[in-house]
Design brief:
DNA-binding transcription factor activity, single chain, elongated, transcription, alpha+beta, 4 helices, SH2 domain, DNA-binding, about 300 residues, five-stranded antiparallel β-sheet
């Protein structure tokens, strides 16, 4: 397409340049407009064919994305069973390979769309399909990439204490625990440090597509906590290419927030003996992702 466009552009500038004083003295000049018009029609037809192929690829990618969502939901169900003690295969290697392959294809389409935009800057004309369809395709592609990346950021290891007799998701205050998140799309810009953070009872609406709303952690009687010891990490590739993109949070502890409204001389919420209680809180991971000009906050 680029070669075809360069040929048309060269012939146009040599044989028929608007604003040029008088007719071109070349022999056979009268036939040149018809020849240029034929070249333009071929160029236009080729541009429309490329755009149609990209539309088809996006449709197939959306079908594959829906399939991956089903596979991811099945993996999450197996992880829930494993947290309850059932034997379940929670390996992420197949999902990671599939998510990465789809991500590579979508980012390649994004590069091609940008290349088409550069071609349009060099040569355009009335009813140019690139002018009308390229922005729509790019918006559809960015939405597809955003959905894929948000789904690809998963909690590989649910929060758990080192004691083997304690199940995941059951934490004690002042006791150390660990957790691990993984980005299944193994594509990242090595010049951009992707910082992952861990929060507890994060305020604000939940980000992400298809996520369940958080439980009301600030109910009366529920305590508020801070996460201590390295609540942010830089997402790095493992020691080998097979390790993927992980952020491993270890040796974390929960510290209860003091109630600032208590008066002088009175006991704060963190002072004195406290009865054993069971509360439901929400731990959230966030990741500042950037690749190929696309910047997102994943949660």
């Amino acid at each position: 397409l680029e070669d075809m466009q360069d040929t048309f552009d060269f012939c146009y500038k040599v044989h028929y340049l608007p604003g040029k004083a008088g007719p071109c003295p070349l022999r056979g000049y009268a036939k040149e407009p018809q020849a240029l018009q034929a070249k333009l029609q071929i160029l236009d037809r080729q541009r429309r064919e490329v755009l149609a192929q990209m539309q088809q690829l996006l449709g197939r990618s959306e079908t594959l994305r829906d399939f991956l969502q089903q596979e991811l939901a099945a993996w999450q169900e197996r992880q829930r069973c494993a947290c309850l003690g059932a034997p379940a295969d929670t390996r992420l290697r197949p999902l990671e390979a599939w998510f990465t392959e789809l991500g590579q294809g979508l980012f390649q389409l994004l590069k091609l769309l940008r290349a088409l935009g550069e071609l349009r800057l060099k040569v355009t004309y009335e009813r140019d399909p690139l002018a009308a369809e390229t922005p729509l395709l790019e918006r559809r592609l960015r939405e597809l990439l955003t959905y894929l990346l948000q789904s690809a950021f998963v909690v590989e290891q649910q929060p758990s204490m080192p004691n083997a007799f304690k199940r995941p998701l059951v934490l004690r205050t002042a006791s150390k625990f660990s957790a691990r998140a993984r980005l299944l799309v193994r594509l990242h810009d090595r010049n951009h440090h992707m910082e992952a953070k861990i929060h507890i009872d994060r305020s604000g609406p939940p980000a992400g597509v298809g996520r369940d709303p958080p439980p009301p952690a600030a109910q009366p009687g529920f305590r508020k906590f801070n996460i201590l010891t390295s609540s942010s990490k830089t997402l790095l590739a493992g020691d080998s290419p097979q390790d993927g993109l992980v952020c491993d949070f270890q040796y974390l502890t929960l510290k209860e927030q003091k109630d600032s409204r208590t008066g002088k001389g009175s006991k704060g919420s963190g002072e004195g003996p406290l009865v054993v209680t069971e509360e439901l809180h929400l731990i959230t991971f966030t990741l500042a992702y950037a690749y190929c000009g696309l910047e997102l906050e994943l949660e």
